[in-house]
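thread: overnight batch results

M.L. [08:02]
morning all. the overnight job finished for the chain we discussed friday. pasting input first so we're all looking at the same thing
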Amino acid sequence: MKKIIRVIVSPTGETRVETRGFAGAECREASRPFEQALGLRADERLTAEFYQEQPAEERLRQSQ
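M.L. [08:03]
and the structure it wrote out:
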């Protein structure tokens, strides 16, 4: 599955970061630079993908 990070800006200037195709906490790692650049986080909604286990090769690559 393709990994996507989407930054959505509303007409009022409110921003939202959405991730797709990431398993487990990998989504938080991938979206962290965007969240830091945008400022204080007001809310977090976890998708079903967050609760999926990462493939073993991804876990190994992140731990190195």
